[in-house]
Amino acid sequence: MNYPKVILKSGKDQSVRRYHPWIFSGAIKKIIGHVNEGDLVYITDNKDEFLAIGHYQIGSIAVRILTFEQKEIDDSFWKEKISSAYNLRKTFGLAENDTNNVYRLVHAEGDGLPGLIIDYYNGTAVLQMHSIGMYLNREHIVQALKDIYGSKLTAIYDKSESTIPFKSKIEAKNGYVYGQSGEPVVLEYGNKFKVSWEEGQKTGFFIDQRENRKLLADYSKNRSVLNVFGYTGGFSVYAMHGGANVVHSVDSSKKAIDLTNENIALNFPDDNRHEAFAVDAFEFLNDIDNKYDLIILDPPAFAKHHNVLHNALQGYKRLNAKAIEKIKPGGILFTFSCSQVVSKENFRKTIFTAAANTGRSVRILHQLSQPIDHPVNIYHPESEYLKGLVVYVE
User: Fold this and answer.
1) Of the residues 142, 338, 341, 391, which is catalytic?
2) Whole-model pTM?
3) Range of the domain at 41
4) Of the residues 67, 92, 117, which one is the last residue of a structural domain?
5) Which of 46, 88, 141, 296 could form a cystine bridge with 10, CB 3.0-4.6 A?
C-alpha cells in the first residue's frame, strides 16, 4: 500500500482508536508524500503505529476513514462493503420485497462508507457523493452495484453535482452512469409514489420517513389532517390510507404540490378528500383555528451549520408554537427536525418551550428517529440526524 502517510499529533489519535471515522485538520502533525484531495492516505499515530486508511480532503474534516484494517482499497473492498449494506437491508425485509421496492442502500458513515449515499428505486440506484474521494471511485462503486444486483439493476444515476465540495476542481454533472430509466413508480408498504431523482430534492424521495409515515396512518382515521412542508405528499398518502376524513397538503413549491396531487391520484383516483395548496407554511398556519386535529410538521433543515443553530431553534419554536396553538383540542402533532446539528435534547427542549408558550396541556406519545436503512454508526453519533415527536394536545 503505497499511500501518502498522515501522522497525527501526540494524543490526537484517541478518537480514531474509538473508531470515529473523521480526522480533523487540527489533529494532523504532518503528511509524508504528495497528497491531492480525494487521495487515499495511510494514517498513523505519532509513534508510526498504523491506525486507519481513508480519503484525504481539504477542510475541517481532513480525512474520512474507510477502514481500520491494513487492506487494499480495490474492487473487492468496494464489493464487500456494499454487499454488507445490501445484506443488512435484505435481512430486515427491505431488499427483495414485493411491497417495498424503495430503500436506502448505503447511508454514508452508518454503513462504513463516509461521503457516499445510495438510494434504490425499483431497479434504479441513485448515487450522491459528498467527498472527492468517493467521486473518484465511481467506477468501483458502479461495478459493485452491477455485481450485487445483476439483472435487477436497470440504471445507475449519479446526482452529485450539488453535493461535491464546492471548492474542489471537479465539475460533477448529474447523469446516468449505467443504463437509462424514466421516472418510476415505487412501492412503499403498498402505497405508490412517483419519484423524480433528476429534478427532486436529495435523491427524489424522503425515504427516511417511511416508518413514521406508517405510524401516521394508524392515527389518521376520522381525523382532519394537515401536512405542512408536504413535498411529494408522502404523509398525505398515508393519512388517506389510514382513513382520514380530509387531508390538506401545504408546500411553498408549486412543483412539489403538482407531484403531491399526482401521488394522491395514483393511490386514490376520484377521491375528493384531498386538497393541496402552494403557499407559505407560516402564513397558512395563521388561519387554521380549530380546523385540524392532526398536523404534520416536516420542514427542511433549518440549520446545516452550528453557527446558525440558535436561529434554527427559534424557527422550530415559532413553527411548533403556532401549530400547538391552532390545533383542535384532542389533536395530535407529528413534528420533526432533519437538521444534524440540532440534537434530540435541543429539539425536545424547543418543543417544550413552544408548548409552554401556548399554555396548553401537551403529552409525548412517541419519540421518533430514522429507520433501519439509515443506520447510526455507534462510533459516529453525528449520523443520527432525524428526530421527531408525536404529541397529544388537550
Assistant:
1) 338
2) 0.93
3) 5-67
4) 67
5) 46
